[in-house]
Amino acid sequence: MCCMDKKISFLGIKVNVLGKKEIVDFLLRFAKGERRRAVFYLNAHCVNIACSDQEYRSILNKADLVYAEGQGVVWSSKFLGMPLPERTNILDFFDALAKELKDNKIKIYLLGETEDLIRKAEEILKNDGLQIVGSHDGFFDKIEEGEIIKEINILKPDILMVGMGVPKQEKWIYKHLDELNVNLCWAVGAAFEWLSGQRRRAPRWMVKYGLEWLHRLYQQPGRLWKRYLFGNVIFLYRILSWKLKNIKNK
C-alpha cells in the first residue's frame, strides 16, 4: 500500500499518516504531475471549525492529502489509539522542500495576505533561489478574482500556495480547482507571515513541547486569544468526548 493511502479518521476527518520527508516527496511529485491536486493541513483550530462547518469538513475529506500541522492533533491521535508519526508544520519541512523545488525548477505563485506582506514574501523567496512567477494579496472582489485566475493560468505555475486562513483558503481552492491551470494547490495558512520575515518563530523548546501556539498568542493577542484560550479547551473536550464515546461502544 502506498503511504499516501494510509489514513486515520480523526474525529471524522481523514488525515494522511505521513512524516516530514514523505510530505516533501509528495508535494514535489504533485507539483511535477499531470493532474490537479489539493493539499490541506489539520490542527486543533481546523478541527474545531470542521466540527461545525460541514462544507469545510467535506472539502478536507475530498483532498488529495491532509497532513497533521498541529502538535495537538498528533498527541490526540496517540491518545485515541491511532497514532500519527509526527507534527508536520510547513516551517519544519520548508527548507528541505525548497531545495527540491529549486533543483527541479518548480514554478510557484503566491496568493494571500496583504499586498506588502506577499510582496515581501515573494522577494525573500526569490532571493533564496525559488522560481516565484507571480503573487497577489488575498483581498479581492469577484472581478479581481477573475483577473487573478487568468493571470495564474497564463503564468502556469506548478504550485499555487494559498494563504487566506481557514476555512476560506480551502473553500477557495475547492471552488476554483478545476479552472486553475496548476498542478498543485496548497493551503498554507499564515506561512507567508514567517516566510516574509514579518514574524519570528517560537524558540525550539516551545516548538518541541507543543507550545508554539502560546508564542503566537503573545505576538497577536487581540486576534488569537479566542482561538487559543477557548479553542484549545473546546478541542480537548471534543477529544475526551470522542474517547469516552468509543469506550462506551466497545
Poorly predicted sequence stretches spanning 5 or more consecutive residues:
none
Helix content: 40-55%
Rg from alpha-carbon coordinates: 18 Å
Major beta sheet, strand line-up:
4-3-8-7-5-6
Task: Give the quaternary arrangement of the chains.
Answer: single chain
Backbone shape = globular
Order of helices and strands: EEHEHHEHHEHEHEHEHHHH
Compute the separation of the termini in Å: 29 Å
Question: How would you state the average pLDDT, rounded?
Answer: 92
Which range does the strand content fall in? 15-25%
Structural class: alpha/beta
Please give the largest β-sheet: 6 strands, parallel
Helix count equals 12
Total beta-strand segments: 8
Number of domains: 2
How does this model look, in words?
This protein is α/β, with parallel strands linked by helices. The chain folds into two domains: 3-195, no CATH class; 205-249. Helices cover 54% and strands 16% of the residues. It contains twelve helices and eight strands. The chain has helices spanning 20-31, 44-52, 54-62, 71-79, 90-103, 115-127, 142-155, 168-176, 191-195, 204-208, 212-219, 221-249, and strands spanning 7-10, 13-16, 37-42, 65-68, 107-112, 131-136, 159-163, 184-187. The strands form two sheets. Strands 4-3-8-7-5-6 form a six-stranded parallel sheet, with helices on both faces. Strand 5, helix 6 and strand 6 (131-136) form a beta-alpha-beta unit. Helix 2 crosses helix 3 (54-62), helix 2 crosses helix 12 and helix 11 packs antiparallel against helix 12 (221-249). It is globular. 40% of the residues are buried.
